[in-house]
Amino acid sequence: MFKIIKVTPAGIRRGLLRTAHGALATPFYMPDATRGFVKLVDNDAIRRTGTEALVVNTFHLYLQPGLEVIKKAGGIHKFMDWSGPLLSDSGGFQVFSLIHQNKQMGRISDQEVVFKSPLDGSRHQLTPEKSIQIQFALGVDMMVCLDDCPPNEFERADLERAVIRTIAWAKRCKKEYERQIKRRGLRGSKRPLLFAVIQGGAEIDLRERCARELVEIGFDGYGFGARPVDKQGNFLEEVLRRTAGFIPRDALRFALGIGTPEDIYRCARMGWDMFDCVIPTREGRHGKLFTAERLPRYGSLNINNAKFALDFSPINKKSRLAELRRHSRAYLHHLFRLQEGLGHKLASLNNLEFYQSLMDILKK
Questions:
Q1: At CB < 8 A and 24+ separation, what contacts does 304-312 make?
Q2: Which of 277, 302, 337 is the last residue of a domain?
Q3: Are residues 273 and 307 in the same domain?
Q4: Which of the four pLDDT bands, split at 50, 70 and 90, describes residue 230?
Q5: Do residues 172 and 295 share a domain?
Q6: Is the domain of 119 the same as that of 179?
Q7: Residue whose C-alpha is closest to residue 239's, from 298, 159, 173, 142
Q8: Are 162 and 237 contained in the same domain?
Q9: Disulfide check for 85: which of 100, 133, 141, 309 has CB 3.0–4.6 Å away?
Q10: Is the pLDDT of residue 293 over 90?
Q11: Are strands 2-7 and 13-19 parallel, antiparallel or unpaired?
């Protein structure tokens, strides 16, 4: 299902991944359609940016609209009208963040996570098995094991416990995954890919231990777990580089939550294949537009600045999207001053196209 075609002298892995909903050339970036949509942007426009795959969130879709609605729709692809590949994360990051921020919101044990819904306070249980069951019910092409995702400030002893729990839960996820595959009769390209997550914080030896034991279990791909920065906010470049080397050559390498254009560029050169992040759309909604100079070099501008009030040049004169060539920066500035949704949409489209252009450069 995944084949490396070439590794460039810079270390970029150019490969081909085949899924039930289409093939993806690596490296690739997936926008976050967390709740089944990318905020303020319709799917047709997303496709025109060159985007081929999206990420949805198990935790949020489980809570709202709920699995019964999605099942009756015929699966998440039909529900959100997306024909390309979809990856679902396990929901672990969201659940653990919820509890770490407020202990009253739940408890974590080796067996399960029990949490209160941030929507209505209702009580829910999440186990490795249930996380996999939910993702099969969604009908995605790629799914992620439930893992113990520790905050940056955790001490080594806490990180070790997270690694031990992550490995134990990965075994349970794999067992449930195989049970679901057999029960549903999924073979060949219809079989969704399963990713395990490598934890260990900034401790390289813990990352190595976690990766080694996960590889022994066997997965289609492996992700870099938790935030890619240390307690001081420094990017974990060496940890990411070393962790990529712990993953087998023929397995996919998923840099979860990474991120900025420069981080994607340097991680691709470390051998990471897949990326997802909210940055392009979130920054766009706040008025930050990424501008291509000579990729991978790039710039950015804040459309809220007064200097754009009389800038009648196109938002992006080289864009593939007619609306970005047609509308001026002055008009976009006007939309942002009035907090008009169209402005947020145009800025988001600009940034999504920029990210896909960066990935095109990496694939050449």
A1: 304/333, 304/336, 304/337, 305/333, 308/332, 308/333, 309/333, 309/334
A2: 277
A3: no
A4: confident
A5: no
A6: yes
A7: 159
A8: yes
A9: 141
A10: no
A11: antiparallel
And the tokens for 5?
Answer: 């075609």
* CA-CA-CA-CA torsion sign (211, 217, 218, 219): negative
Tell whether 361 is covered by a domain: no
Whether 271 and 296 map to the same domain: the answer is: no
Residues 236 and 302 in one domain: no
Query: Is the predicted pLDDT of residue 212 greater than 90, yes or no?
Result: yes
Structural domain range at position 341: 288-352
251 and 297 co-located in one domain = no
Tell whether 358 is covered by a domain: no
Q: Are 211 and 243 in contact (CB under 8 A)?
A: yes
> Is residue 60 situated within a structural domain?
yes
Q: How far is residue 250's CA from residue 318's CA, in Å, rounded to a whole number?
A: 37
On whether residue 364 sits in a domain, the answer given is no
Instruction: List, for residues 241-285, the tens digit of each pLDDT value.
Output: 999 999 999 999 999 999 899 999 999 999 999 999 999 999 999
With a CB cutoff of 8 Å and minimum separation 6, the contacts of 155 are: none
Q: Which of 89, 141, 148, 220 is catalytic?
A: 89
What sections of the chain are H helices per DSSP? 43-48, 58-63, 67-73, 76-80, 92-101, 128-138, 156-184, 204-217, 237-246, 261-270, 279-285, 322-326, 329-337, 341-363
Q: What is the pTM of this model?
A: 0.96
Q: Domain of 38: which CATH number? A: 3.20.20.105
Assess whether 236 and 107 both reside in one domain.
Answer: yes
If one counts the domains in the chain, the total is 2
How far from 139 is each of 31, 181, 189, CA to CA, in Å? 18, 12, 13
Per the listing, tokens 């081909």 go with 16
Query: Which one is catalytic: 147, 263, 276, 311?
Result: 276
Count of positions (residues) in the chain: 364
What are the CA-CA distances from residue 13 to residues 141, 179, 240, 323 (Å)?
Answer: 21, 32, 15, 34
Tell me whether residue 360 is one of the annotated catalytic residues: no
Domain end among 244, 277, 310: 277
So what's the pLDDT on residue 278?
A: 95
Catalytic (active site) residue 276: yes
